[in-house]
UniProtKB/TrEMBL annotation:
The keyword RNA-binding does not apply. Keywords: Coiled coil, Repeat, Ribonucleoprotein, Ribosomal protein, TPR repeat. This is N-terminal acetyltransferase A complex subunit NAT1. The keyword Repeat applies. The lineage of its organism: Eukaryota, Fungi, Dikarya, Ascomycota, Saccharomycotina. PANTHER family: N(ALPHA)-ACETYLTRANSFERASE 15_16, ISOFORM A, N-TERMINAL ACETYLTRANSFERASE-RELATED. It comes from Zygotorulaspora mrakii (Zygosaccharomyces mrakii). Residues 504-531 form a coiled coil. TPR repeats lie at residues 241-274. SUPFAM superfamilies: Ribosomal protein S7, TPR-like. Belongs to the universal ribosomal protein uS7 family.
Length: 856
């Protein structure tokens, strides 16, 4: 850690290095001028005379890093660090090391060396600015406040320094100090602000009021102060929406509902299509629970805003009388269908979700009756979009056949409308016909070759159908393919996460398919009669053995290739999100210069949720499936020992043939590499991800690349505790499994899964399991308290029927819970499989196919 300011400088250049020091300073100037090669040339001469000159070693490492020679740079920096005791180097050396660490994205180490540079006597006050950015990046806002204040004291003539200091104070909870800082600067610049600075001034004024509002809480006196400030700055504020929203919020907190309602009416007048304003208007008027008054309100608002959606839609969410509701629904839906509005179903979809039992049959009746009135020839537009609506309706109701019938009618009537093919593909997807769905999207895509949306949709459908080659071909129509045979590299460069995650999952499916085929083939070969081999030996040939080698090599390569590529793509998602985190670094100074404090604070809040975003979590779970399987396979090496012996024996008997097949396979690998490589060859020595698959500690690799970041940011109520349980179980940490189960009982609503998790955890505490003894005792004690009257005493009773207990006490119709039990094999697999098959009978074909192929 850094030492106190004013401490005696250490690590200064040794006496007798005058000439070398001069040359070093010359090399430093060349580095600052980006003449890296010239700088290196001078440093080589210095190091030739004195190889222990730490400053020169560090600067040369930084020069090499700037030229892209990362390996040599790292070696030099390690050499330099080995010669430094603690942080007792010269201020310049420490600064250089700090810049190197920052460029290498090792922000915590960079901050340490910047601190060291200042503590060792550096007078370069610009270091405080860089240090503040680094401390903000690593979340050390206390340190950032100190650095911001030091820099502000040195350069008080810049507005950005005042703003950055106020933000640092705000981040540390020093709200009044932040307000004072901003107020002080406002007084200094009063009457001196130019036209180009007015917007920045407006942002800072709103930011100050936002601080006042947040600091006020429910304190009426402070809220009055915030309101007074808001009225005072109103003439200088450009963002009228935000100003009015703040004003309404303050009125609501102060209990001034009448004043708040006036403000919300002003907001509705400005934007009559914002549903939120209408809901808040109801609350401010105190009529949220009175449907009659709400009805009267919206009747009046419809007269004021006849072309707006909310006044017409909102009564549909609370009208109880069925006849009245039917009339209002008809008045809302029929005009849209008559005008040919494609989004009619989307507009009423919230009603389907929240009032399905009442609304769905009424809308089916209304739209079906309207459809009967239409003539395909005389009413082409209403006819098409009514068919489209009914197709969407029946898909929502899981009546796939009727949905398909109506979309087919629409396509027959107008076969050139792209949207119809997109929806038909969706219906076919739910029917489990993924290949047919992709082909349908392809027919739609060919109707409009310049439409990126239909291109993207088609790519997704081909990936889900495991036709990766076709998907890449279509995606490559809209990518830059200057230096590669397809668009895979460009899609990674532009961080197209939607494509990468879909491709990762497609590769995973192909991996599981190939693995199953390999096992089936090996089992088939192991049962071949020895008589066939003897006959081949008599004839002097062994076609069976030769063919076995060829097919076996092909299957093995497919398994490794698809597994590696799937993991490689999941890793790519992790890299993208790590890049998102690193990209914040630039904004710690940029937002200060541009005067956008509110946007900066929003970015900081977003930065705390990067690794909990849906696509990252999806990639993490996908990678865990692979790593967990690799880990379990490594523990169960004897399962396929007979098959492995067969493979080894055949390989020995046909060693020459095996070498020949290896040669053929290597050529094929080189050809295929061009189609799958995602990064420049200089940056990626493992395009197939084989090294990732061969990791000696898969769970450690998973933790470092995925789980660590997720665990750092995920909030308790947002975590996926089933995943937590799986992960900790694989790591052998039963106490943490118990913690995950306990939290799930608090936040989860799936009683079946709670029962399944408890059974798995209890049976893991048996004496013959390979878990830690103390962890077993903790978990056993926890199982007694998680579920009341749970038969913990039956743990060692081999005759106790746990599946029967599960069926009698929990929701055994829950497919998720049954799959969980089947995965852990704590009860007889055939029985859980039978229950799963019974539940699948009630599911849509897509779910059935997925579970049958990849779950059981």
């Amino acid at each position: 850690m850094s030492k106190k300011r004013g401490a005696k400088p250490k690590g200064l250049p040794l006496f007798g290095r005058g000439k070398e020091q001069t040359q070093f300073l010359e090399a430093l100037k060349l580095y600052e001028g980006k003449s890296y090669k010239k700088s290196i040339k001078i440093l080589d001469g210095v190091l030739k005379k004195d190889s222990h000159f730490v400053d020169a070693l560090a600067l040369k490492g930084l020069d090499l890093l700037s030229t892209g020679e990362k390996t040599e740079a790292s070696s030099l920096i390690k050499n330099a660090l080995s010669k430094i005791e603690g942080t007792t180097a010269s201020p310049i050396c420490c600064h250089v090391l700090g810049i190197y660490m920052r460029t290498s994205k090792n922000y915590a180490e960079s901050a340490k060396w910047f601190h060291a540079s200042l503590n060792n006597g550096s007078n370069n006050m610009q270091i405080y600015r860089d240090l503040a950015s680094l401390e903000s990046q690593i979340g050390d806002f206390k340190g950032a406040l100190v650095s911001r204040k030091k820099y502000w004291e040195s350069f008080p003539g810049y507005r950005s320094n005042w703003t950055s200091l106020a933000i640092a104070q705000d981040m540390n909870g020093e709200h009044q100090q932040a307000v004072n800082t901003l107020t002080q600067f406002e007084k200094l610049v009063e009457g001196k602000i130019g036209d180009s600075e007015l917007y920045e001034h407006n942002e800072c004024l709103l930011y100050k009021n936002d601080i006042l509002y947040r600091a006020a809480g429910d304190n009426k006196g402070k809220l009055v102060n915030a309101m007074s400030n808001l009225k005072a700055i109103e003439p200088s504020v450009y963002d009228k929406y935000d100003l009015l929203e703040l004003k309404a919020s303050i009125h609501m907190k102060m209990g001034e509902l009448k004043e708040a309602s006036k403000v919300y009416r002003m907001l509705i007048k400005r934007n009559p299509d914002n549903f939120t304003y209408y809901r808040l208007l109801e609350i401010s008027l105190g009529i949220h629970g009175d449907n009659n008054l709400r009805k009267t309100l919206y009747e009046k608002l419809q007269k004021f805003y006849p072309r707006s959606e909310p006044p017409k839609f909102m009564p549909l969410t609370f009208t109880e009388n069925v006849d009245e509701l039917e009339t209002k629904l008809e008045e809302y839906v029929r005009p849209q269908l008559a005008r040919g509005v494609p989004a009619t179903f989307c507009n009423v979809k919230p009603l389907y979700r929240n009032r399905r039992s009442i609304v769905a049959p009424l809308l089916e009746k209304i739209v079906s009756n309207y459809f009967k009135e239409l003539n395909p020839t005389n009413d082409p537009l209403p006819y098409i979009w009514t068919c489209y609506y009914l197709a969407q309706h029946y898909l929502f109701m899981k009546d796939f056949q009727k949905s398909q019938d109506f979309i087919d009618k629409a396509i027959k009537h107008t076969p050139t409308l792209v949207e119809l093919y997109i929806f038909k593909g969706r219906v076919l997807k739910h029917l489990g016909l993924l290949d047919e769905a992709a082909e349908t999207l392809e027919r739609g895509r060919k109707l409009d070759l310049q439409d990126r949306f239909i291109n993207t949709k088609t790519v997704k459908y081909y990936l889900r159908a495991k036709n990766i080659e076709k998907a890449v071909e279509i995606a490559s129509l809209f990518t830059k393919n200057d230096e590669s045979v397809n668009g895979v590299k460009d899609l990674h460069q532009v961080e197209a996460a939607w494509f990468i995650i879909e491709q990762a999952e497609a590769y995973y499916k192909l991996y599981r398919d190939s693995e199953r085929k390999l096992k089936e083939y090996l089992n088939e070969m192991s049962t071949k009669k020895s008589a066939e081999k003897e006959e081949n030996n008599k004839n002097g040939t062994d076609e069976t053995g030769e063919n076995f080698i060829r097919v076996l090599k092909n299957y093995e390569w497919q398994v490794n290739k698809y597994c590696g590529l799937s993991l490689k793509r999941f890793y790519a998602i992790s890299k993208i999100y790590q890049q998102f985190e690193d990209d914040q670094m630039d904004f710690h100074s940029y937002c200060m210069r541009k005067g956008t404090p509110r946007a900066y604070v929003d970015m900081l809040k977003w930065g705390k949720t990067i690794y909990t975003q849906p696509i990252y979590v999806r990639a993490m779970k996908g990678a865990f499936k692979i790593y967990n399987k690799l880990y379990n396979d490594s523990k169960n090496l004897n399962e396929n020992e007979q098959i492995e012996n067969l493979v080894e024996k055949v390989m020995q008997e046909h060693s020459k043939k095996s070498k020949k097949e290896n040669s053929v396979l290597n050529k094929r690998k080189e050809e295929e590499k061009k189609t799958v490589i995602a990064y420049p060859e200089s940056d990626d020595k493992d395009p197939y991800g084989i090294d990732l698959v061969k990791s000696n500690s898969p769970m450690d690799a998973f933790m470092e690349q995925f789980y660590e970041n997720y665990n750092r940011q995920a909030k308790e109520q947002e975590r996926d505790y089933e995943f937590e349980f799986d992960y900790q179980y694989s790591n052998g940490k039963l106490a943490l499994c118990l913690s995950a189960l306990s939290k799930y009982t608090k936040y989860g609503h799936n009683s079946g899964l709670i029962g399944a998790m408890t059974i798995v955890l209890l049976l893991a505490t048996k004496e013959d399991t390979k878990f830690d003894t103390i962890a077993k005792k903790v978990a056993l004690k926890g199982c007694e308290s998680i579920i009341e009257k749970f038969p913990v005493h039956e743990r060692d009773n081999s005759d106790f029927d746990w599946l029967d207990f599960f069926q009698k006490n929990f929701d055994y119709h829950n497919l998720h819970a049954l799959l969980f039990l089947h995965q852990y094999k704590v009860v007889e697999s055939s029985r859980t499989k039978e229950l799963i098959l019974n539940e699948l009978a009630n599911k849509e074909p897509l779910i059935q196919n997925t579970v049958l192929q990849y779950e059981i």
